[in-house]
Write a structure and sequence with these properties.
By secondary structure, the protein is mostly helical. A 7-stranded antiparallel sheet has the order 1-4-3-5-6-7-2, sandwiched between helices. A hairpin with a 2-residue loop joins β6 and β7 (137-143). The two termini are 36 Å apart.
């Protein structure tokens, strides 16, 4: 609702000027899409119910109030103490906003003067009123029995077309004047099209940034890597799978300091290897920030690490110490430990005391922090000091240090600070009895990082058996992340009271049992890291899923279509399911009819419409509509129903 890009406040102000009040909450309405409403009003199948000369808003408002009351959208008496609620959408055709807004009349006037072209719909989606001004006339069109009309239109669109009719339809689209076609959106879609020729990709290199998200042919990639636009070169470095020599060549050839820094940062972040020449170029760069990134490079040669450890910039020396420390001789190490700059001396102390006990006197005199207590080999006097006088952050670091003797660490079992007890409970050296004695505050809804030491034990069956019975949920979750587990461990974890343990077993373990996978499917539909699990797990049951077609839980209803015995009729029925996840599953089913696809293109859910737009049975008329709409054209260009010859003609239009 509201003009394209309008904020909620702007929309509410527009409604206020129209004598309407927005009714909270703002939400996706379970009715036909706004696009379908406009198509129904402007398609020419329904004659206007009233006409008013343009520029007479009072007459148009009176006509709208009368028609809305007669249609049951408004109470006949107009606004009263509890005026009727209805849906409205305004902001332009055909590519205006996509959302309905619930409103009610706040005054006795009507909305036509403020809203311009708009459509109103009853809450049940049954009756529609469109207001359109063109050629000097405001036309008000009432459409009743909207669902039946939408179904009839879908069936008509899905009717088979002869080869001649299809060719004529494509000719009509491609014969449209280019200024009326969304060529920029076509360019975006064609940039990732499977059959796009090299010549087109070279042309699109500067026109469409999405091109760099596909794997480029060698000639196009070479052009991108040497392009005059430094941002384009940088994006190609980041998005394309380059060889070691290509990455290094770009860095050696780069004359812009900022771009060279970005390339160095990307190479370091992604652990890309560079040639020795490129490493040296970055390690000797005049820019301090580039030398800082050189310190982090994977495979940095030892001589360069040693050189950076003597850099005139203290920050560079500080970061280089970690890479160079193992190769420094004793004299150089002593020199660094006495460096006058604390930002160099303190990291050196941390490295030195990984091998030599850190006493309390040095800890205090150098004002070291919890990082030292977490990573260094600690002297007994420092451990005693922290246990006796340390603050909670220091005690938590002591508990987290794997080299703190187990017996000394266990003195923190009843520490008053929950963070200290949390760190202690996740130590690898505790027995499960000792771990169970540590009281922790565990919120199963909070995201926690799993202890990495458990992953190192995944191939040890006895360790997995022991840890699967741990009192700590994160330990059991870590076990569940193993790819293979003994049968008794799987059985135990599949019944774990922490359902995240069951989820991780479903996502990661090849041995997860079918019964548990089906149970998890009742509350989980997949994550970014493991999409569609547990449904895509090889042990997931398929037979007998039809029994869930009428189940009250929507996640189980959607599984009914995975049953080999499910039918096209069931696909059609679930395409009308109340829940969008079920309709999305139906929209992905190849058995869905063309008419069913057309109906889902008018679905209130954008996710359902998106799934339907990819269906191979998408009716030609609807595909042509999608190609004309700037908001859907980029995705529609890749639809498999578009003939190759048409794709070539579309490419030709971009050359004009």
């Amino acid at each position: 609702m509201g003009p394209v890009g309008a904020t909620r406040n702007e929309t509410e102000e527009l409604l206020r000027r129209a004598g309407l009040e927005a009714v909270a909450p703002w939400r996706t309405e379970p009715v036909l899409s706004v696009r379908a409403a406009w198509r129904t009003v402007t398609g020419g199948g329904v004659p206007p119910s009233a006409e008013v000369p343009a520029g007479r808003p009072a007459e148009a408002d009176a006509a709208w109030n009368r028609l809305a009351a007669e249609a049951g959208i408004l109470d006949a008496a107009g606004p009263g103490p509890h005026p009727a609620v209805f849906l409205v959408q305004a902001g332009g055709r055909p590519h205006g906003p996509r959302m309905w807004t619930r409103v009610r009349l706040a005054s006795g006037a009507g909305p036509t003067g403020a809203l311009g072209d708009f459509v109103t719909l009853s809450l049940d989606g049954g009756t529609l009123i469109g207001v359109v001004t063109e050629n000097g006339t405001t036309r008000l069109t009432v459409v009743d029995d909207v669902p039946a009309r939408i179904r009839a239109a879908a069936e008509a669109d899905a009717a088979p077309r002869s080869a001649r009719e299809q060719a004529a339809a494509w000719d009509a689209l491609l014969g449209t004047p280019p200024r009326h076609l969304p060529l920029d959106a076509w360019a975006t879609g064609l940039a990732v099209h499977r059959d796009a020729p090299e010549a087109l990709l070279l042309q699109l290199l500067e026109r469409d940034p999405y091109l760099l998200y596909r794997r480029l042919p060698p000639a196009v990639l070479a052009a991108a890597l040497t392009h005059p636009d430094r941002k384009l070169r940088q994006d190609a470095f980041e998005q394309q799978p380059l060889t070691r020599e290509q990455r290094s060549g770009m860095i050696l050839a780069e004359t812009d300091e900022r771009t060279r820094w970005v390339l160095a940062l990307l190479a370091a972040d992604r652990r890309d290897e560079l040639t020795e020449e490129a490493c040296e170029r970055l390690a000797t760069d005049p820019s301090t920030r580039i030398r800082l990134e050189a310190v982090r490079l994977t495979g940095l040669p030892v001589p360069l690490a040693l050189r950076l450890a003597e850099d005139p910039e203290p920050t560079v020396r500080s970061f280089a110490l970690l890479r160079a420390w193992a190769h420094l001789d004793d004299a150089t190490r002593r020199s660094v430990l006495e460096d006058p700059r604390p930002e160099v001396r303190r990291p050196a102390l941390l490295l030195h005391h990984r091998e030599h006990p850190l006493p309390q006197a040095v800890f205090a005199s150098e004002a070291l922090d919890a990082d030292a207590l977490r990573s260094c080999l600690l002297a007994d006097d420092l451990i005693d000091h922290v246990l006796r006088d340390g603050d909670p952050s220091q005690r938590a670091a002591l508990a987290d240090n794997p080299r703190t003797p187990t017996g000394r660490a266990l003195r923190l079992t009843h520490d008053p600070d929950p963070h200290v007890r949390w760190n202690l409970a996740l130590r690898a050296d505790l027995t499960e009895e000792q771990r169970a004695a540590v009281e922790i505050d565990f919120d199963p809804a909070v995201h926690h990082f799993l202890p990495l030491w458990i992953f190192d034990l995944h191939d040890d069956p006895e360790a997995m058996r022991r840890l699967a019975g741990s009192a700590h949920p994160l330990v059991r979750r870590g076990v569940a992340r193993a790819r293979r587990l003994p049968p008794d461990v799987v059985e135990r974890l599949a019944r774990d009271e922490d359902r995240v343990v069951q989820l991780f077993l479903a996502e990661s373990c090849d041995d997860a049992p079918a019964e548990m996978l089906l149970r998890v499917a009742q509350w989980w539909t997949g994550s970014l890291s493991t999409p569609d699990r547990p449904r895509s797990h090889p042990n997931f049951p398929r037979e007998g899923l039809r029994r869930f077609a009428d189940h009250p839980e929507h996640r189980l209803r959607r599984l009914a279509l995975d049953d080999p015995a499910s039918t096209p009729g069931l696909v059609e029925r679930l395409a009308r399911d109340p829940h969008e996840l079920v309709r999305i599953r139906a929209a992905e089913d190849p058995r869905l009819s063309a008419a069913g696809v057309a109906l889902l293109l008018d679905d209130p859910s954008g996710a359902v419409r998106k799934a339907a737009r990819r269906h191979p049975r998408l009716p030609l008329r609807r595909l042509l509509d999608l190609l004309r709409d700037p908001r859907t054209a980029a995705g529609a260009v890749s639809h498999p129903a578009i003939p190759e010859e048409v794709v070539r003609r579309m490419i030709g239009l971009l050359d004009r």
